[in-house]
Amino acid sequence: MRTPEPGRPPGRFAVTDPATGETFDEAPDQQPAELDAVIGRAERAWRYWRADPAARTTALRAAADTVEAAGDDLARLLTREQGKPLAESHAEVARTAARLRYFAGLTPQTRRISDGRPVHSEIRWRSLGPVAAIVPWNFPLQLAAAKFAPALAAGNTVVLKPSPYTPLTTRLLGSLLTAVLPEDVLTVVTGREPLGARLAAHPGIRHVTFTGSVPTGRAVAGAAAGTLARVTLELGGNDAAILLEDVAVDRIADRLFWAAFRNCGQVCMAVKRVYVPERLHAEVVDALAERAKSVPVGPGLDPATRLGPVNNAPQLARVEELTRRALADGARAAAGGHRLDTPGYFFAPTVLTDVPPGSPVVTGEQFGPVLPVLPYRTLDEAVTAANSTGFGLGGSVWGTDPDRAEAVADRLDCGTAWINHHAELSLHQPFTGTGNSGVGVAGGPWGLYGNLRPFVVHRPEAAQP
Questions:
Q1: pLDDT at position 7, please?
Q2: For 366-408, what is each residue's pLDDT tens digit?
Q3: Are 43 and 36 in contact (CB under 8 A)?
Q4: DSSP 407
Q5: FRET partner for 9 with CA separation of 20 to 30 A, picked from 95, 108, 312, 340?
Q6: What is the separation of C-alpha 91 from the centre of its chain, rounded to a whole number of angstroms?
Q7: What sign results for the dihedral spanned by CA atoms 440, 443, 446, 447?
Q8: Which candidate in 81, 88, 92, 234 is catalytic?
């Protein structure tokens, strides 16, 4: 049994408001042993949930309506525990409902195999069983829905574990959906480690879908390997933006800034490095620094706020250390470069120049409001650098000739490449990465089929004697 937090009763843990750094609520610290009962109930619920596709469609559409109806309550609580501006929380709630509605409309398609033999062969699809969905703190609702909506639509049941930094909104979502989903089809469990590790390794789980850091993703994959459960891992990125010689800096500066700094830079597919032709480097640095210095930073519930705090103290310490190390190695902060002298987990929006290419703020994933801008001499040099970190989630190319930009984008080793914008996704498209950015595919029909297994039936075309 885990040691309780000082001053807190057993079975509970504190939830902190990142805008103040103070505890404002608590959540159940469920013990790993409790998972046996939860997963057992999910197994029993799966036996009837998988059997009625029409009922699943109706229930998921009702779930989308329920999320929209509770939008104000969900958004305010999300901002309180995650920190993002309230407008962004409302947008996240809307995307959560949209995912439910989208997957409610998808059904797996039976396919006939024609190979010249006198045999009628069909590929049909069957659900997997209970699915474990383990979700991080940057988009707790949106990423939860990206996992449980396709899993439920496919006929699986789901045990959903949010981050211990953002458990409250997910618990509220789960309680709302119990009114429209059958019992034990979706269960939310909250707690500190080793709850997630035990969930990933549980023999009753048939698919583990995880979003988070590379080290934790490797541990999840290792845990799931013991039961041979299917694994889908989205492990973040270090997306590069390459600006071409013909780019109009004044026209793209706002889009580029927000592609890097939205949600305080805490987006897996945010721009985390910018490569700029040498002659444009100073202009780009100045344009981004001007926006970093002027953007309103503050508590997410303040209507004037455009950038909120970093979500938690360990992440703030990481952002601070990466910035400190870069500055010690010779980088210069054109804007920011320091923690703000205010309560809460606030870090000044930071634009770095003169950054050594091997600095960890370039080669790793800072996941915060810090952006290095690096000059390049040749386009080949920029593409090589963009592909050199081991990550491969997304990337973008910016210029006035879209055909040329697309040709450069085709050279990026990543799952998604954008031209003159970044980090925009459609519900209909696959979302995947290469290298350290993960394993498997989410999004669109691929997300549905990732929660199914093929079942093939052969029979002779003609009656047998």
A1: 60
A2: 999 999 999 999 999 999 999 999 999 999 999 999 999 999 9
A3: no
A4: H
A5: 312
A6: 15
A7: positive
A8: 234
